[in-house]
Write a structure and sequence with these properties.
The structure holds three protein chains of three kinds.
Chain A lengths: L13 H12 L6 H7 L3 E6 L8 E5 L4 H10 L2 E5 L4 H13 L4 E5 L18 E9 L2 E5 L7 E4 H8 L11 E6 L6 H17 L7 H11 L3 H4 L3 H17 L8 H14 L3 H30 L4 H32 L1
Antiparallel strand pairs in A: 1-2, 3-8, 4-5, 4-8, 5-6, 6-7
Chain B lengths: L1 H19 L27 H15 L9 H4 L3 H11 L3
Helix pairs in contact in B: 1-2, 1-4
Chain C lengths: L2 H4 L7 E7 L5 E7 L1 H26 L5 H8 L4 H8 L3 H7 L2 H4 L4 H11 L17 E7 L6 E7 L3
Antiparallel strand pairs in C: 1-2, 3-4
Helix pairs in contact in C: 4-5
The chains are: A alpha+beta, B mainly alpha, C alpha+beta.
């Protein structure tokens, strides 16, 4: 698990990508879509909170769940630490690196100054692998960076110990044991069952398919919440960023989920899963149309009531399609588990 | 004696929540054990993102999983309901 | 999504998308960001307008520099309070110019840490009407001391 050169690779998403890279490094061959699918990472949630200046939505399960659910389902064990005192957190990371153990760290994305400025916002749930310490700088394997990057000590410390919602508190983890054999059939179906359950069965009106509907209903009211047209345009165009650019693999993780189902169908020799993978790929294609639509009307400032109703209609259609899809997938998972 | 042990857990949960959410303008004593945490006019002013953070903090500290199968809406109703759930299900 | 629809030639912002490949299989491709390539100018245009608009509000004494950076970084008083480690009630006061003067140096430094700016940027705006110079504040190892560097802009 240590000593070998860490192989940097870009990935679609920071949490599933970081886990995949660490597991591969530890000798367990597994793909990012598999990690994402088995953990049941696909989701939807619409949030209005005093912590965000504008309503927002997520397309994945809550931070950390990908790791904990994956560990439970395939039997990987991770060492995990949080720190009250930043100095302890720094010391522990340095200790691991001196033993040539790469560790994943939770960070505030804002301080990853090797990435383009326009993407760097304050989000406390960005995961990177810290590979090595060179002098006063750290070598970072970030799934969103084409190459290994260097980050100075000050930035890494600020990023690991930023306050605010989902504060990282220096959280770090690394695998300490990987299983000899994995029951992939069981793991895959558990992951499918939990994801589809979360999509269609949660009672909260802002989560799962209900959350997509809430998004569709509320987006027509966004003009009332925006400061002015340019602000509204910015928020509407962020729909595209959240679905496509913010580490989703495209269409709000739907394309990566399709790839997971495809891989699972081959692994388990299951034709139904192949069929489902094609369907979620098509569902994703329509999500991507929403992204492009949002970018276009935002750029043109074409944001009148009719246009937003059109956008709302497209989102409602996605809710309907995903409701049918995940209900079928849930039924299938109950039968086949 | 039992009530004392219960109160201790209640206070621990209060502190955990306030630390997880960095709430420093409300004293723990101001939060009643049976006050509605998410209802209108709740003293902490909690919303859905806070709920998510509370679930994560409880999971980490007590090793409990809160998902729909055990009805998070009811569990997160007040400090008492959380404590009752933790008391029954904690693994750490 | 088909691979050829996903491919965007844009080196400055690369990402991974999952696509249907030519042979019908699904898998990852590395490509450029469609939205950055096509809409980045609009993003900066709006951002610059915001800087101008809120910069004027500071000058007019309507908001404090803390409010300026909070709005620009898309934070709320509640989230900013948690990040700076002071109460939301206090942060809300700091957003108003008449209370800005009551900040302690320590509090101000904590705000600067969150916004990742050198201290003097709380008190000044740097402008130039010369196109061929680049002016910027740089942090030093001493948190209370920064450097204002003026240099010839490269073409």
């Amino acid at each position: 698990m240590k000593g070998r050169t860490f192989k940097h690779a870009m990935a679609a998403h920071c949490e599933s990508g970081t886990l995949t890279a660490l597991l591969n490094h530890a000798g367990l061959k597994i793909s990012e879509p598999m990690v994402f699918g088995i953990s049941g990472g696909i989701f939807f949630g619409y949030f209005e909170s005093k912590k965000f200046p504008f309503p927002t939505f997520v397309v994945r399960s809550r931070p950390g769940q990908i790791r904990t659910a994956l560990a439970r389902r395939i039997g990987v064990k991770f060492a995990e630490r949080r720190f009250r005192n930043p100095a302890d957190g720094e010391k522990e990371l340095d200790r691991l690196l001196s033993l040539q153990i790469p560790a994943a760290c939770q960070t505030d994305f804002f301080y990853m100054n090797y990435l383009p400025g326009h993407v760097r916002v304050h989000i406390n749930v960005h995961f990177v692998v810290v590979v090595e310490k060179r002098g006063e700088a750290y070598i970072i394997s970030d799934c969103y960076s084409p190459e290994l990057a260097s980050l100075n000590r000050d930035s890494l410390m600020k990023a690991r110990f930023a306050g605010g919602s989902f504060a990282p508190k220096g959280f770090l983890f690394y695998p300490v044991s990987v299983p000899e054999a994995i029951d992939f059939r069981k793991a895959v179906w558990k992951g499918i069952r939990s994801a589809s359950f979360y999509m269609v069965k949660l009672p909260m009106p802002f989560l799962g398919v209900k959350g997509i509907r809430m998004f569709a209903q509320k987006v027509v009211d966004w003009p009332r919440l925006a400061r002015d047209t340019e602000h509204l345009s910015h928020e509407i165009m962020k729909i595209n960023i959240f679905l496509e650019d913010q580490g989703t693999g495209g269409a709000g993780f739907r394309f990566m989920y399709a790839t997971f189902l495809r891989e699972a169908s081959e692994l388990l020799n299951d034709r139904d899963l192949l069929e489902m993978s094609k369907r979620i790929m098509e569902i994703g294609d329509r999500w991507r149309e929403i992204s492009l639509f949002a970018a276009r009307i935002g750029k043109r400032r074409d944001l009148g009531p009719d246009r937003l109703r059109e956008l709302s209609g497209l989102i409602h259609e996605r809710a309907d399609a995903e409701e049918i899809f995940f209900k079928e997938l849930l039924a299938m998972s109950k039968k086949k588990k | 004696m039992n009530t004392n042990a219960g109160n201790e857990l209640n206070n621990e949960i209060k502190l955990l929540i306030m630390e997880a959410l960095t709430i420093n303008e409300v004293a723990p004593e101001e939060v009643g054990d049976d006050d509605s945490l998410f209802g209108q006019d709740n003293v902490l002013g909690l919303d859905s993102i806070d709920a998510l953070e509370i679930v994560m903090a409880l999971q980490e500290k007590y090793g409990v999983r809160i998902d729909d199968k055990n009805q998070s809406r009811f569990i997160l109703r007040s400090i008492s309901t959380i404590a009752e759930f933790i008391g029954k299900n904690r693994t750490r | 999504m088909k691979e050829k629809e996903a491919t965007v030639d844009y080196k400055e912002h690369q990402l991974v998308l999952y696509v249907e490949k030519k042979d019908g299989s699904y898998g990852p491709v590395r490509t450029g960001s469609y939205i950055t390539k096509n809409y980045i100018d609009d993003f900066w245009y709006k951002r610059n307008n915001m800087e101008v608009e809120y910069g004027e509000k500071i000058r007019a004494g309507e908001i404090s520099p803390i409010a300026y950076y909070m709005i620009l970084e898309e934070l709320t008083p509640s989230e900013l309070a948690a990040r700076v480690g002071i109460s939301a009630r206090k942060v809300k006061r700091h957003l108003m110019p008449r209370h800005f003067g009551t900040l302690t140096l320590d509090e101000l430094m904590r705000y600067c840490g969150v916004f990742n700016i050198p201290l003097p940027n709380m008190f000044q705006e740097i402008v130039t009407d010369k196109k061929n110079v680049k002016i910027g504040m740089e942090k030093t190892d001493n948190p209370f001391f920064s450097v204002l560097r003026i240099r010839a802009a490269r073409k």
